[in-house]
Amino acid sequence: VERQNQAGMARNENVVNCLYPKRDAIFKLICFPWAGGSSNYFAKWGQTIHDSVEVHSIRLAGRESRWNEPFASDPDQLIEEIVCALLPVLQDKPFAFFGHSMGSYTALLTALQLKNKHKLEPIHLFLSSAVIPREKNSQVIKLEHMAEEQTKSFLVTFGGTPKDLIDKEFIQQVSPKLKADGHIFQKYNFDSLPFLPTISCDLSCFWGSEDIVKDMKGWKEITSGNLHAHVLPGDHFYFMETSNENFIKDYITKCLELSMLVSV
């Protein structure tokens, strides 16, 4: 039994990346990466965010320490895997989710399953650069069918990658992850969401002034809580600018601390 528990813990640590554990933290922030992204970018936030917040980031199969695992192909199994890995992490402290682009939808689906099956709900959802769920299908780019030139054009258009890095070798490295995540993204189903609020926590949305996503205020329809919207200078990967990243981390900290004051 002990060996099984150890194997389970190792498995969870593969899925949930925490580079900077903070035993005395008050809150836990779970971050969900974008299509083709890895866990390390957001996991590094743990070093510079306020000491009251411990940062965890979701690591999907087929990348980093999970490079030898096949990419996820079934969205239900993907969310179930994330939920199972998060359950031991979320039991002892208030938690919030942050998701960027595709990660916004992964965060929402994870929140819904946690609420419906385990009576757990984040105290705040922070979502970035994603159209409202019921408009997702009209915005899906066929990532899994893109040729090399289309992948290069996609990376240039969306930003987040220095143009001088986008060569043939880079595209060959990133393309399998983009296509795998694009396949999952197309299968994410939100058909039942437009009819009623599905969560009750407050929701904060961020997007770039030059982003392909122009407005996220419609996300209000999924929650009975409040919605706060913020437009920051930049493109789809606006948060990679140091000033924007610092704003987001400070804003998250203040929101979480305020939520504790309100609940007292």
Automatic annotation (TrEMBL):
Q: How does it assemble?
A: Interacts (via C-terminus) with FASN.
Keyword terms:
Fatty acid biosynthesis, Fatty acid metabolism, Hydrolase, Lipid biosynthesis, Lipid metabolism
| MF-aspect GO terms | fatty acyl-[ACP] hydrolase activity
Gene3D superfamilies recorded: alpha/beta hydrolase
| Lineage of origin | Eukaryota, Metazoa, Chordata, Craniata, Vertebrata
Q: What is this protein called?
A: S-acyl fatty acid synthase thioesterase, medium chain
Question: Which E.C. number(s) belong to this protein?
Answer: 3.1.2.14
The question of whether Transferase is a record keyword is answered with no
User: To which species is this protein native?
Assistant: Rhinolophus ferrumequinum (Greater horseshoe bat)
Q: What does this protein do?
A: Contributes to the release of free fatty acids from fatty acid synthase (FASN). Has broad substrate specificity, giving rise to a range of free fatty acids with chain lengths between 10 and 16 carbon atoms (C10 - C16).
Its EC top class is: hydrolase
Cite a single GO BP annotation.
medium-chain fatty acid biosynthetic process
Which Pfam family, giving just one, matches this sequence? Thioesterase
The UniProt similarity line reads: Belongs to the thioesterase family.
What is this enzyme's catalytic activity, as reactions?
hexadecanoyl-CoA + H2O = hexadecanoate + CoA + H(+); dodecanoyl-CoA + H2O = dodecanoate + CoA + H(+); (9Z)-octadecenoyl-[ACP] + H2O = (9Z)-octadecenoate + holo-[ACP] + H(+); decanoyl-CoA + H2O = decanoate + CoA + H(+)
Question: Where's the Thioesterase domain?
Answer: 28-254
Q: Read off the SUPFAM superfamilies from this record.
A: alpha/beta-Hydrolases (SSF53474)
